[in-house]
Request: fold
Amino acid sequence: MDLNETHDGGLRSWVPDANDAATDFPVQNLPFGIFRRRGSSESWRGGVAIGGQVLDLAAAAASCALPAARTGPAAAALACAGQPVLNDLMGLGAAPLGALRLILSRALRMGAPQQSALQACLVRQDDAEMALPARIGDYTDFYTSLHHATRVGKLMRPDNPLLPNYKWVPIGYHGRCSSIVVSGEGVRRPQGQRMPPGSEAPVVGPSERLDYELELGVFIGRGNELGSSIALDDAQAHVFGLCLLNDWSARDLQAWEYQPLGPFLGKNFATTISPWIVTSEALAPYRVPWTRPAGDPQPLPYLQSQQLRESGALDIELAVYIETQRMRAANVQPHRLSLSNFRDCYWSVAQMIAHHSVNGCNLRPGDLLGTGTQSGPAPAQAGSLLELSQGGRQPLTLPNGEQRRFLDDGDVIILRAACRREGYARLGFGEARGRIEPARWQADAG
Amino acid sequence: MDLNETHDGGLRSWVPDANDAATDFPVQNLPFGIFRRRGSSESWRGGVAIGGQVLDLAAAAASCALPAARTGPAAAALACAGQPVLNDLMGLGAAPLGALRLILSRALRMGAPQQSALQACLVRQDDAEMALPARIGDYTDFYTSLHHATRVGKLMRPDNPLLPNYKWVPIGYHGRCSSIVVSGEGVRRPQGQRMPPGSEAPVVGPSERLDYELELGVFIGRGNELGSSIALDDAQAHVFGLCLLNDWSARDLQAWEYQPLGPFLGKNFATTISPWIVTSEALAPYRVPWTRPAGDPQPLPYLQSQQLRESGALDIELAVYIETQRMRAANVQPHRLSLSNFRDCYWSVAQMIAHHSVNGCNLRPGDLLGTGTQSGPAPAQAGSLLELSQGGRQPLTLPNGEQRRFLDDGDVIILRAACRREGYARLGFGEARGRIEPARWQADAG
Reply:
């Protein structure tokens, strides 16, 4: 995707805090989400984050504050953006979305004549509640970090950490749509079967090894027909945008159940995503070359191209923070557990999509792909407690002296991400936040 | 579920062919589906199969031909039944559905005063096209046949066919919703990676080991809230009904990809279901005791109960037929490949549901569960070619001399099912039919 005037690092907005160095949402970002005023019974509708505000796209359409979007490809995009889910907007493809982005960028810039009309369409983010941005038809989770796969593999198979298919196949599996929740919703500790070491029979009860996984989510834009495939170099055009994704995992349930058909109850009790989707177009300046470690096999032809090698990866810094009950009580800031970067992934977003559809599987607008846990090469860059605590053997000590092997009730996990490039704006992703609630234990389930 | 007058084996209908011994749809069945006149641009709407006809429920509601359904719980059910998907109907729960069933049963019986008014609401099944009965939010596939799991396990791990969790955990995994199609739609042979035996690197191309799997599908009725569980003895009330399900499988793709996260491209290219859902209530007379083989461990408390032991299994005879291109050209009837019975499953429908939700995972109306391949104890009762051909080592010879290890292009696979009990009607499930279309091979995908 080419860079254009909307990516100009020098742009400033008339929305005052959109120009703060610390904002996630400068005028170069313009991520989409679904919102309404908190506590109201208003209709859910699309909005764009700008500084600490939401630009209400349904209101903007109704008030004709964006005359440039009254006709042409942007008109369809603006109409779809006011709906209670963004699936139709996502399905429009790149041209209408780009036209709307350009109009929004111009209207939100310092000195724009639309300022007074648009001011009435702003809602403070603090006054808004957010919903899932789309009706997610299918959710697929991948496993694209070699560092994560190797470290987790070592815990389970010390002599054979990486399975032979890993460097050939972008491994993925289908996850649960019904339990995907938006940042801020509580996450109840799941209960289920686990096999205690040395036991003869499993026991049932609340998970004792509850974990997070630091991932990005990829929302599909335009889909493909059942029986057709998306070629690698077309894949980018099928991506609407990216968000943060926490693939909560109950390691004890997962370890006992996952053979031979993969994770199920260890994962499907909750997945938290951030409410704002940073669009493919906004991410264009942060594309970087995709490379393979020397000596590794080159991917099969359907998974490689010149375009991939030149700009197939994304430079997105990813961080996980924890806030325990004691930290909250003491008013201590959340503690950063790890920092990694999506450019270290082994398989790119385009490879995920080309692989997913090579067999004719159809993707639909609003489908969600998870990237899998993004762990960096250094042990401290691991995107899960399973790795950081070496399978629970080595507890982490937090700055206030508390220890964690896995998550306690009351712990809050916060995922954050940002793109930075010299000469360009810093784009943030907001956050994906979830707090562990105690298990609802049923006496008769034991 | 108690038996009532709708189950009376002596009932006869004024729809003439509904009384034929061979019909799948006597007046005791009354399965729901979504239809419209073939080739028309009519709205999709709910119907009930009766003999060779569809009773158009939208037309029945509009014509007031069912005065008993104008008020009370049946009114809501009839209104929902006219919608283009049955999700709302499914979510109503047992009482409104039971009320509508009783009204339909009485109105369709020989001598019913509604006959002349309802006659105008009948559409011949031959003149109807069918759609998916629901917007399927999540599709979960289980693995409930011990005979299937053992036979498949032997092919992969001769010394250790059954994994240690099998007799404790109703193993399941999430499947793909977007590629679920209704009976009659073509199934394109998928392409993808496979690792030829003895090779150093995988190859990409059309699957050479394409297979079917004989399953039942379970449509969820009333759902549960995220974070709550469905107790075993409540599970039956969350089942709307059952259909046939063919979980098409590319064994070569699956074998190479499935470690460690389970099946993905080997399965998600297509799943075929039959269009008619036989309701929980219609199936009541065919419930039979659920038992465990002597010496096997008893399930954990959340997976067993007195009710399960008394009536937790269902006596449903299941059959797979093949019709090759040569058979079609010669006008030969489809050949039966296997015959098995759902009463031989190791885990029941109620156990699938109680397990699926024990961790708080929420099920929603219209969700689909697959039972996994239903193979009986005898080798000839196997519900997949993988088993029947012993992993492709032993080709099957069809009556016309053709041989099959796996499916050829042009092969049609037909699943059928029926319930029988002395003194009760024979209920059929219609069929789930799919024809293998040649791979759409892309030169650049190799």
About this structure: Chain A touches chain B through 71 residues (CB under 8 Å). The first helix of chain A runs from residue 57 to 62. Chain A has a mean pLDDT of 96. The longest strand of chain A covers residues 427-437.
